[in-house]
Amino acid sequence: MSNERKDDVAVMKHKSQDVFEDRGLFVGIARRSILQGLGIDPEEMRGKPIIAIANSYTDFNPGHTHLRAVAERVKEGIWAAGGIPFEFGVPAPCDGPANGNDGMRFILAQREIIADAVETYVRSQLFDGLVTLSSCDKINPAMLMAAARLDLPTICIPGGACAWNIRFCSGGEGSINTKDYESLELKIQTATPATCGACEIMGTANTGQILMEALGMALPRTSAIPAFHEEVLRKARDAGRRVVQMIREGLTAGKILTRQAVENAVMVDVAIGGSTNATLHLPALANEIGFELPLQRFNEMNKKIPTLLGIAPNGPHGIVDLYRAGGVPAVMSRISGMLDLDCLNVSGQKLGEIVSQARVEDESVIPPLDKPRLPEGATVVLYGNLAPEGAVVKQSAVDPSMMTFTGRALIMNGEQEALDALQAGKIEEGTVIVIRYEGPKGGPGMPEILAVTLQLVMSGLDRVALITDGRFSGATSGPCVGHISPEAYVGGPIGLLEDGDEITIDIPNRAISVDLSSEALEQRRKVWQPIQKPVPPGYMNRYRKLVSSAAKGAVLG
Fold it and tell me: Is residue 4 included in any domain, yes or no?
């Protein structure tokens, strides 16, 4: 082997060279012999980089049913560029089937499992590069967390959004927003996928896909491509080719996933009207990178950056409209004066170059900064004696008349109690429903309380608020405050509340409080005992012991 060929192999197979070189050892010969069973020429494997494709394909989640075909195009690109692809699968939990039942406790917890699985598998097999395919809520941040740990040349491929069935229904008004329809049948069609892909709203899935691009980990303008569009396949092939070139360039995830990139992502999140779950996932990613992202940072940004987009539940549009209007680069061009334009993208370009080439094709979808959907950013963090570490609300989805609200507490020690009370007609106007023991440890698993918020919307109650130490879907609207920290299970003030306590939610002033003195709260704490919800033997017992506060990203310590 010439010195030039040796140098090239050392660069392109910077990890996997140890797998394919026997160095005269019998174990090396055994490794190569086993891999010969793949049906790939061993000599070819000795000279080319091997690249993992982490695919969250499943046939039990509309967001992921198409990813098998996408992976094939990635492989084509890798082969064409001189690499060798190897695909493996990871779980792809869908929040839909788990809502309103015990399954929801296991959804957020899978973020850590997926991140661990990708990290450990890729480390164990010594891959030279990584491509991730994902669409839905917990899988997107898990892929980013794994990429940060591995620090390999990595590209994330967002799977794209579906089109809601309302787009094809007689009686559709050009809006995909449930709130724009009176008919129950049409409301249902605003939550029914007509195609593969993640739910078309600005929920956690599409927020996560967009943030992949904002962070620089996805090729430009790929995160808003509809899942059913042929461009998904073309860009997947481009990603396969590009990851091989990234290996040659030494462009790893660690050079892209920086503190500045995460700061950019926070700004994009508030501008797009992103899911409140971004306040879990971006701090968790920051933790992997090696710094702390305090929740207060979201408040600092939402005062500077307005909610630009009116994507449901913030307005009538969907992700399909965002794609048509210019995608994420067009959004970032609107706030480019505040972004760090020196941040890198997996394409090898700096953000400034990408933004300079962006075009807004429809100002009704991506308006200028001086004509935003709402004057402030979407995600707001509230503080006060009820949430010393913070609580989160999506103010862009709250009716203006409910931005400040005071009501009497009605205590529920779990989601099911609240569902039962709503079905029995026991909730009155002027109530603040308190759902507690649904935090990371108390749930355990910090379940999403979407079933209750949907029931509230359908109940016709106008002057009712909801607070919880659990979390919400990006689809949630109304004065629903989640992530209250510390949670009830660890003795947070929400665990000390009693029926009838007066609670004030003041979104403009970023405050949430109960009308009790600190002395009164301490008296209650002396007799307080946590409620211990049973969990099946296995992972969730370990999760409960190790998981951190929601204010820290609910990461495992």
Answer: no
pLDDT value, residue 478: 63
Pair (400, 347) in one structural domain: no
CA neighbor of 152 nearest in space, from 128, 179, 120, 186: 128
User: Catalytic: which of 135, 223, 347, 473?
Assistant: 473
Q: How far apart are CA 285 and CA 476, in angstroms?
A: 24
Determine whether 473 is an active site residue: yes
CA dihedral 190, 102, 543, 123 (to 10 degrees): -60
Q: Report the CATH number at residue 417.
A: 3.50.30.80
User: E strands, 327-457, where?
Assistant: 379-384, 387-394, 404-412, 431-435
| Cα–Cα distance measured from residue 420 to residue 139, given in angstroms and rounded to the nearest whole number | 31
Give how far the C-alpha of residue 137 lies from the chain's centroid of Cα atoms, to the nearest Å.
5
The first and second tokens of residue 96, run together, are 């839909």
Model pTM score: 0.95
Q: Could you tell me if 159 and 137 are in contact, meaning their C-beta atoms sit under 8 angstroms apart?
A: no
Domain residues for the domain of 264 are: 49-162+197-356
Q: How far apart are CA 211 and CA 261, in angstroms?
A: 10
- How confident is the model at residue 19, as a pLDDT? 86
Domain-located, residue 27: no
> Of 49, 329, 319, whose CA–CA distance to 205 is shortest?
319
The conformation of residue 556, written as its DSSP 8-state character, comes to B
Residue 275: CB atoms within 10 Å: 31
Q: Total domain count for the chain? A: 2
Residue 347 sits in the same domain as residue 397:
no
Residue 477's pLDDT is 60
| pLDDT for the residue numbered 3 | 57
* Nearest Cα residue to 56 out of 30, 94, 21, 18: 94
Residue spans of the chain under pLDDT 50: none
Condensed to tens digits (0 to 9), the pLDDT of residues 487-527 reads 999 999 999 999 999 999 999 999 999 999 999 999 999 99
* Torsion (CA) 344, 330, 279, 465 in degrees, nearest 10: 180
Which pLDDT value is given to residue 312?
94
- State the pLDDT at residue 18: 86
